[in-house]
């Protein structure tokens, strides 16, 4: 029986690793992409093997065209096709600075990975999906990992908010373009998730959670995000595209 193949970017740790593991347990062959050498992640990847997950690792950066092309080429060489793309790779500003002091260098770096890299990898994978035989109920699924920051202002990391707003629009554009082709495009918007990216501001978010800013008074986990991605990639949701799901403990609810 032919197996489906999923690409997950930023998959060596945190949310990306949880997504790769979840999809692997769902029965996908998984290609994990991240910037570090494979040897750095031996323990984590060994756990995937122990779970019976068929995986392949590709080192690279999504903001570099040749690395994106190498990723797709390696996926086809190893597994023969691409059925799912999860655009999870992303970076935060190296330094939180007031938007009046934000540098062009920081803006270019964050936009280059979060928005440009996501957009052009999606373009590349979508073209590959269109070349493939349409076997299952849908031709493919693309899930972008956005952020509540697409709509929530953080003036000390404006470049990140702008980059995620761009991901939200890219989701809409590709969903519109690819719907007639049987490729569904969705977005998952995490809120405050316990990862390396949020560890630097743990005290701030601990206080916000304790004070009731979030209706559900706990940190989100990478697994919370991974489970949402799993549903979008399944055949349980086939009559919507361009949709997004807030995984934020209810933070998106406006309250008086």
Describe the overall structure.
This protein is α/β, with parallel strands linked by helices and 256 residues long. The chain has one domain: 3-Layer(aba) Sandwich (Rossmann fold), CATH 3.40.50.720. 43% of the residues lie in helices and 15% in strands. It contains eight helices and seven strands; from the N terminus they run E-H-E-H-E-H-E-H-E-H-E-H-H-H-E. The protein has helices at 14-25, 42-50, 65-79, 104-131, 158-178, 196-199, 202-211, 222-233; strands at 5-9, 29-34, 55-59, 84-87, 140-145, 183-190, 244-247. The chain has a seven-stranded parallel beta sheet with strand order 3-2-1-4-5-6-7, with helices on both faces. Helix 2 (42-50) links the parallel strand 2 (29-34) and strand 3 (55-59). Helix 1 (14-25) crosses helix 8 and helix 3 runs parallel beside helix 4. The longest helix is centred in the middle third of the chain and has 28 residues, at 104-131. The mean pLDDT is 95.
Could you write a compact summary of the structure shown?
The protein has helices at residues 14-25, 42-50, 65-79, 104-131, 158-178, 196-199, 202-211, 222-233; strands at residues 5-9, 29-34, 55-59, 84-87, 140-145, 183-190, 244-247. It has 256 residues and is an alpha/beta fold. Helix 1 links the parallel strand 1 and strand 2.
């Amino acid at each position: 029986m032919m197996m489906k193949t999923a690409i997950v970017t930023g998959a060596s740790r945190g949310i990306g690793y949880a997504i790769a593991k979840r999809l692997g347990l769902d029965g996908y062959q998984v290609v994990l992409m991240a910037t570090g050498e494979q040897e750095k992640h031996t323990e984590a990847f060994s756990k995937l093997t122990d779970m019976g997950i068929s995986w392949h690792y590709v080192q690279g950066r999504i903001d570099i065209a040749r690395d994106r092309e190498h990723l797709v080429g390696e996926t086809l060489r190893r597994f023969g096709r691409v059925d799912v793309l999860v655009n999870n790779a992303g970076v935060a500003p190296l330094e939180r600075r007031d938007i009046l002091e934000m540098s062009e260098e920081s803006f270019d770096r964050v936009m280059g990975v979060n928005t440009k890299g996501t957009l052009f990898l999606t373009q590349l994978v979508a073209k590959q999906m269109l070349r493939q035989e349409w076997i299952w109920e849908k031709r493919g699924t693309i899930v972008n990992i956005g952020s509540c920051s697409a709509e929530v202002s953080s003036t000390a990391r404006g470049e990140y908010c702008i980059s995620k707003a761009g991901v939200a629009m890219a989701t809409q554009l590709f969903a519109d373009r690819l719907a007639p082709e049987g490729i569904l495009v969705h977005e998952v918007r995490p809120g405050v998730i316990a990862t390396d990216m949020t560890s630097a501001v743990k005290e701030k978010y601990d206080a916000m959670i304790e004070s009731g800013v979030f209706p559900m008074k706990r940190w989100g986990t990478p697994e919370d995000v991974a489970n949402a991605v799993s549903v979008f990639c399944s055949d349980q949701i086939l009559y919507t595209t361009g949709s997004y799901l807030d995984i934020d403990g209810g933070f998106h609810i406006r309250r008086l």
